[in-house]
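In the current project phase, we have settled on a layout for protein records. A sample record is reproduced below.
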Amino acid sequence: MKHASFAGQRLVIVQPTGVNDAADGPPLIALDILGCRKGDHVMLTSDGSYAREMTKHENTPARWSVIGLIDQRRPA
C-alpha cells in the first residue's frame, strides 16, 4: 500500500465470520491501532470519519478499522 495516509499505520487482514466461526465473505484489510494478533476476534467499523481520525489524513482510502478486541464469545 503506497497511499500517504498509511505511513506508520498497521494494516491487518481480517476474515469476517458468521455462525460457528464459518467464513462470511472475503477477507478485509483494516487499520489496527489496538494490536490485534492472529486468531483474535475483533470488531470492525466502516466509519470513514474514524479512519480519517486514525490516519490524520482527510483523503485516506481506508474503509475498515479495528475498534475492539473480543474477550469472550457466547455460543450461538
